[in-house]
Amino acid sequence: MQPRSNGLQPVFCTIVPPHVLDHLSRADDPRLADPARRTLDADAARRHHRRVTALARTPVTARTSAPVPTKPHRTLYDCRHGTDLPGVKVRDEGDEATKDASVNRAYAGLGATFDLLLTEYGRSSIDGMGLPLIGSVHYDEKYNNAFFDGEQMVFGDGDGEIFLDFTVAIDVIAHELAHGLTQYTANLAYQGQSGALNESVSDVFGSLVKQYSLGQSADQADWLIGAGLLAPRVSGVALRSMKAPGTAYDDDVLGKDPQPGSMDDYVETDEDNGGVHINSGIPNRAFYLLATALGGNAWERAGRIWFDVLTGGELTQDASFTDFAKLTVAAAQHRFGEGDEAEAVLKAWSEVGVPTR
Fold first, then answer.
1. Which helix (H) or strand (E) holds 225?
2. How many alpha carbons lie under 13 Å from residue 174 in its C-beta half-sphere?
3. Based on the number of CB atoms within 10 Å of its own CB, is 265 exposed (0-12), middle (13-18) or buried (19 or more)?
4. d(CA 355, CA 199)
5. Alpha helices of the chain — where are they, by DSSP H?
6. Rounded to two decimals, what is the model's pTM?
7. CB–CB of 73/132 below 8 Å?
8. Does 176 participate in catalysis according to the annotation?
9. How many Cβ atoms sit within 10 Å of the Cβ of residue 138?
10. If residue 136 lies in a helix (H) or strand (E), which one and from where to where?
11. Between the CA atoms of 121, 124, 128 and 133, what dihedral angle is there, to the nearest 10 degrees?
């Protein structure tokens, strides 16, 4: 297997998969198709820019002897519907709330993610050293996406027809920030099964931040990613369902949720970096099955196991589902012993068809 690299992968991760936007771009109604096309073009340009700039430098956090921060350092910017990042600074750490709801929601979402990582897992920000968290809102005109570009989070306002403001869902905010967590830990390659794991880890921690902020147990959670993001005209409830992959939406314009829930329905495709947003449904469902089998708060045991694997140093950049699953079994045994946790991990992966032995 590919060994761990000292450099970080040049990555550009969006919450709305390319296949969704591509389907939407072929709609007969230009009010739906045009924003989708512009979003696809903007994402392609930003992806290329990220690849070029990442190759020119290695964004590894410098290690110092200074105390690790125990409070977040958030800075929010307003792109004012332009594409120059980060935009105009509108809120710094400790500032009073602004009159802009998007700014305030992004500020709160970044803080909730920092809080979960520090309080439950003892990690200061996504790099473990208190890395400042940067977010930009009101990106571009009718931009139907949110993304992490390796350095910061960016949120569009949506077109109002299919997608609403991308700051309305705290799990979307946490999902994008969790891509940074992966970047600074396992650095999973954004291709094939390792890319699907990259996406799944972001969904897992996005859902955990949502549950943590709402005080929900695993049984109380909806296990939806992006609930509230779809406009009223859309026949759907969210972008993805961890509980029941493939059921998040079924819409004449948006299409049908293509996510599989087990390896029996694994999708072989060259699109979307080998289906990273599609096949992520398999490890997503495994985590849901584990968390609900254990009960209580998902971040305490199930989330701890996933965090231990992500930060443990044994997960290779090109890890397969089986590689990841085996490490979760080992992590459960190491932290909790040969008890309910390890047995529940084995059962969860078995149910989605991923071998662990």
1. strand 224-225
2. 27
3. middle
4. 20
5. 18-25, 30-56, 101-121, 170-183, 192-214, 272-275, 281-294, 302-311, 321-336, 340-351
6. 0.93
7. yes
8. yes
9. 24
10. strand 133-137
11. 130
Active-site residue, selected from the candidate residues 176, 179, 199, 341: 176
Q: pLDDT tens digits, the chain, 357 residues: what are they?
A: 333 444 555 567 899 999 899 999 999 999 999 999 999 999 888 776 555 444 343 444 445 567 899 999 999 999 999 999 999 999 999 999 999 999 999 999 999 999 999 999 999 999 999 999 999 999 999 999 999 988 899 999 999 999 999 999 999 999 999 999 999 999 999 999 999 999 999 999 999 999 999 999 999 999 999 999 999 999 999 999 999 999 999 999 999 999 999 999 999 999 999 999 999 999 999 999 999 999 999 999 999 999 999 999 999 999 999 999 999 999 999 999 998 999 999 999 999 999 998
State yes or no: cis peptide before 10, omega within 30 of 0: no
